[in-house]
Amino acid sequence: MGEALDLFRVATGVLLHAILVHTGGSSVAMIPRETVMPPSSSALAPKVNLITLGVSDIARSTAFYQRLGWRRSEEASTQDVSFFALDNLVLAVWSRDRLAEDAGLAPTPPGFGGFALAQNLASEKDVDLAIDNAVAAGARLLKAPAQTFWGGYSGYFADPDGHPWEIAYNPYFPLDEQGLVALPA
């Protein structure tokens, strides 16, 4: 934990991106922001610009996300990594083993890593259509869309490497003009 804390402290002025790796069941502790940096510091803004998914077959994963209609940046991508421009975020697919090595982690077998990627949509009908399109593109249905205990509507699919995606309609988190979640204050 000490090394991780030091890395957060060193992040001042460094472009930081989020790397999500399945950890094979190991736990991650949440550190209060005040522990990492003074409350007045703005060195690490509360945002994520890039998510990298570790995958076993880059070409297969690239083709899957393209079948979803996502645009691959041909200029930024190579045969070793694909970048997709999303609203206010970049999604990358890269070798699972190389991502683990780059992050200083031991490679682990695919499985639930304690996180899900999510997309909120404007209606239940939109959720049904998005899940159907994902399955048609090669996703595995994990949970059919249904009413939720929290008053919304959602379903889950997994991409070809098992990364879970929740597609939801949440009446408590409306979407703004750009289709981005507008959290209540």
From TrEMBL:
Gene3D superfamilies registered for this protein in UniProt? 2,3-Dihydroxybiphenyl 1,2-Dioxygenase, domain 1 (3.10.180.10)
Q: Which CDD domains match?
A: VOC_like
User: What is the protein's given name?
Assistant: VOC domain-containing protein
In this protein, which residues make up the domain named VOC? 47-170
